[in-house]
């Protein structure tokens, strides 16, 4: 066999399709991007059988797509998708506790004429809800093999594999006709479900009880905001110790390098450039992982849909809908998964607006910038009767400023460029589930890998280039002042300083903004590189924070913070926005408006602060 | 009670008495879905709204109950339809006609 048979795994949202796909492919799954499309391609061999490749298609309610990712499912199944051959068979996943609803899509799939196997998933939940289904009757009515599965307990997988292999070698395509409209499919589904259901069940009690609390008019919003507060609190408090370990580790490496290598440019490159620059970024790994852990848990429990429900009204006031809340919340971790999560928004204008404002959510890469600046210029005092730390309060204000700016920008966009029909909000609130540790761990592992690869490749190369630009051509004999002033960075910085002088940035800051475009957090390591090459040993010891505290004026520091609320985003964000919007137009617009807002905000901040403080 | 009119609900059935639009119902109210009425709908709702409502799980004769409403402005609502829970805005919910129980 030359190329493996392709089997598409499809189903309604919330049918446990991804869990089943994970159980069938395990750690051998591959995640890639379809060229030019907005969907990740998840594939893997069927239970280690390399002759059968499973491809996980986005969940959808029907073959009439309501969003860009649903369109991919339809196109692949119809054989119209350029980057994927038509599947040889379908593995359709349905939720046994919601058979009538999920069968409608299975019936629609039967019109495609592809061999199909039905996985009746979540049969453990069905048993708990006292639902009983006649499998052989269901199999006969649909004309396909039906296997009971429990994805999370790996039950029924071998049977499933056998039937899929059978279907691939079977007599070829078979079609069954149930009608042509959604209504026909629905009628047939309800009829079949009724005929094969031996006992109806009692519903998911836990979900109803939990919803009574979590969607309660008073308790609901309080709980939602408490969860968000806890999330941000955890990002700071829980990450502190592991961050110290990483910092110590990097310091050890720098000392080790200094002990092994002679003083000179190689040591400077390794210690100031690579270790200093990359280390300044890697130290934020714990914070990013904590943030992602929260988001993964909220998603896998089913709470995220409730958050969307609670937030819909607020989002509607700026012309978006509750679904936009999920990508925006993810953007606090990083704008890239946030922008990708916007695929689930059906309306193209709502989706575009969400993508455009996602970078205003303060991503974890801006945390280092805020942390260093606040540490440098805001006194560690308690306010409001010694209860709340002033530094934390300023951090909160910076996050809040980003959110408010995002809402205002969304409102303006929706009333001008994105004007159109007001669109709807419709979302299934899935049953609550206990978050599963393997799912969260695999998600975190994936995230850490992406982050470290970015730190190891792009951030490292940017740091090396910056170190080079900051070290050469070097000061002439007898020059006074900082040697960096005579480097390429110094020249670039001094040109840029003309533009940035009205907002209070000196040439060092202006120079650091350029590599900051590669990744926001690099702005800090860039300042570190510029100052450490420029400065004496004491400066390096005091770190960037000490350097800022000693040399920046307050208005400049405030202006820099204001800049980073809007900070024109990193290259990866621009790249992902280009991919998701299918061109350069919107990423360029995003870059332009963020740059303008950043400049205006910094200008006002600097001028007002200068007037008040001097 | 006007029982005979209950016989054959159609997608444009608006004449049934005792019926109510789902979008006007309060939490705790429940009944059976009679049909989808797109004729008198808000001009802003999508033209294929009936299909979309069917796709997410609404169907004739299913039991429907308003479970929750948003704490802000009482819109959207969360309803139980059959054995699932769906959140939607009242404007779209108004397409769904319900025979109260």
Mean pLDDT of chain A: 83
Strand fraction of chain A equals 5-15%
Taken together, the total number of domains of chain A comes to 3
Helix fraction of chain A, binned, reads: 55-70%
Number of helices of chain A: 26
Classified by CATH, the class of chain B is: Mainly Beta
- Assembly type of the chains comes to heterodimer
How many helical elements of chain B?
A: 2
Q: What's the story with the biggest beta sheet of chain A?
A: 7 strands, mixed
Report how far the terminal alpha carbons of chain B are from each other. Answer: 11 Å
User: Helical amount among residues of chain B, as a percent range?
Assistant: 10-25%
Output the CATH topology of chain B. Answer: SH3 type barrels
Spans where pLDDT lies below 50 across 5 or more residues of chain A: 536-540
Total E-strand runs of chain B:
6
Strand pairing plus helix content of chain A: what structural class? alpha/beta
Question: What is the H/E string of chain B?
Answer: EEHEEEHE
| Neighbour order of strands in the largest sheet of chain A | 2-3-4-1-5-6-8
Largest sheet of chain B: 6 strands, antiparallel
DSSP E strands of chain A, number = 12
* Content of β-strand of chain B: 25-35%
Question: How would you portray this structure in words?
Answer:
The complex is a heterodimer of chains A (614) and B (101). With 614 residues, chain A is of the alpha/beta class. Helix content of chain A is 61%, strand content 9%. Chain A is elongated. With 101 residues, chain B is mainly beta. Chain B has a single domain, classed as Ferrous iron transport protein A (FeoA) (SH3 type barrels). Chain B is built from two helices and six strands; from the N terminus they run ββαβββαβ. Chain B has a six-stranded antiparallel beta sheet with strand order 1-6-2-3-4-5. The N terminus of chain B is likely disordered. Classes of the chains: A alpha/beta (614), B mainly beta (101).
């Amino acid at each position: 066999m030359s190329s493996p048979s392709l089997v598409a795994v499809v189903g309604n949202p919330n049918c446990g399709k991804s869990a089943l796909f994970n159980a069938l492919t395990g750690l051998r799954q591959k995640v890639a991007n379809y060229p030019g499309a907005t969907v990740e391609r998840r594939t893997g061999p069927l239970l280690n059988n390399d002759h059968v490749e499973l491809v996980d298609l986005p969940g959808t309610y029907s073959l009439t797509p309501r969003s860009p990712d649903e369109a991919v499912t339809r196109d692949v199944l119809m054989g119209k998708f350029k980057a994927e051959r038509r599947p040889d068979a379908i593995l359709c996943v349905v939720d046994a506790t919601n058979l009538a609803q999920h069968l409608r899509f299975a019936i629609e799939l039967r019109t495609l004429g592809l061999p199909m196997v039905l996985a009746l998933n979540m049969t453990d939940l069905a048993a708990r809800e006292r639902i009983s289904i006649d499998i052989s009757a269901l199999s006969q009515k649909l004309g396909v093999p039906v296997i009971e599965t429990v994805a999370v307990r790996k039950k029924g997988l071998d049977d499933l594999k056998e039937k899929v292999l059978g279907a691939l070698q079977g007599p070829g395509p078979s079609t069954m006709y149930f009608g042509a409209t959604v209504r026909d499919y629905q009628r047939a589904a309800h009829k079949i479900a009724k005929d094969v259901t031996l006992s109806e069940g009692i519903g998911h009690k836990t979900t109803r009880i939990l919803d009574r609390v979590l969607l309660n008019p008073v308790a609901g919003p309080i709980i939602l905001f408490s969860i968000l507060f806890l999330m941000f609190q955890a990002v700071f408090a829980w990450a502190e110790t592991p961050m110290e370990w990483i910092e110590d580790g990097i310091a050890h490496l720098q000392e080790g390098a200094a002990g092994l290598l002679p003083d000179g440019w190689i040591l400077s490159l390794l210690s100031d450039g690579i270790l200093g620059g990359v280390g300044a970024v890697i130290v934020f790994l714990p914070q990013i992982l904590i943030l992602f852990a929260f988001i993964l848990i909220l998603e896998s429990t089913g709470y995220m849909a409730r958050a969307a429900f609670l937030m819909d009204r607020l989002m509607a006031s700026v012309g978006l809908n509750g679904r936009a809340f999920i990508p925006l919340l993810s953007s606090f971790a990083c704008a890239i998964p946030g922008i990708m999560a916007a695929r689930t928004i059906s309306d193209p204008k709502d989706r575009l607006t969400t993508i455009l404002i996602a970078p205003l959510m303060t991503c974890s890469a801006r945390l280092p910038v805020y942390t260093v600046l606040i540490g440098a210029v805001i006194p560690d005092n308690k306010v409001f009767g010694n209860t709340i730390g002033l530094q934390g309060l300023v951090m909160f204000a910076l996050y809040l400023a980003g959110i408010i700016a995002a809402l205002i920008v969304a409102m303006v966009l929706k009333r001008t460029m994105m004007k159109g029909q007001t669109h709807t909000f419709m979302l299934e609130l899935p049953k609550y589930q206990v978050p599963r540790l393997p799912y969260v761990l695999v998600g975190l592992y994936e995230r850490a890998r992406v982050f470290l690869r970015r730190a190891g490749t792009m951030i490292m190369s940017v740091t090396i280039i910056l170190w080079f630009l900051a070290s050469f051509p070097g000061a002439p004999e007898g020059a006074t002042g900082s040697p960096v002033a005579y480097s390429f960075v110094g020249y670039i910085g001094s040109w840029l300083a003309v533009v940035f002088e009205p907002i209070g940035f000196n040439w060092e800051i202006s120079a650091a903004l350029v590599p900051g475009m590669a990744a926001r957090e690099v702005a800090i390591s860039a300042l570190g590189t510029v100052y450490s090459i420029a400065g004496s040993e004491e400066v390096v010891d005091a770190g960037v924070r000490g350097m800022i505290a000693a040399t920046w004026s307050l208005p400049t520091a405030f202006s820099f913070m204001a800049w980073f609320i809007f900070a024109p985003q990193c290259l990866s964000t621009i790249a992902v926005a280009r991919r998701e919007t299918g061109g350069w137009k919107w990423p360029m617009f995003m870059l332009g408006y963020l740059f303008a807002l950043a400049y205006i905000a910094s200008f006002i901040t600097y001028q007002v602060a200068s007037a008040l403080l001097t | 009670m006007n029982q005979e009119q209950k016989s054959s609900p159609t997608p444009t059935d608006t004449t049934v008495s005792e019926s109510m639009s789902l979008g006007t119902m309060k939490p705790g109210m429940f009944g059976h879905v009679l049909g989808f009425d797109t004729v008198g709908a808000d001009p802003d709702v999508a033209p294929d709204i009936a299909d979309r409502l069917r796709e997410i799980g609404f169907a004739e004769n299913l039991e429907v109950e308003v479970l929750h409403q948003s704490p802000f402005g009482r819109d959207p609502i969360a309803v139980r339809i059959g054995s699932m829970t769906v959140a939607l805005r009242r404007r779209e919910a108004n397409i769904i006609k319900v025979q109260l129980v």
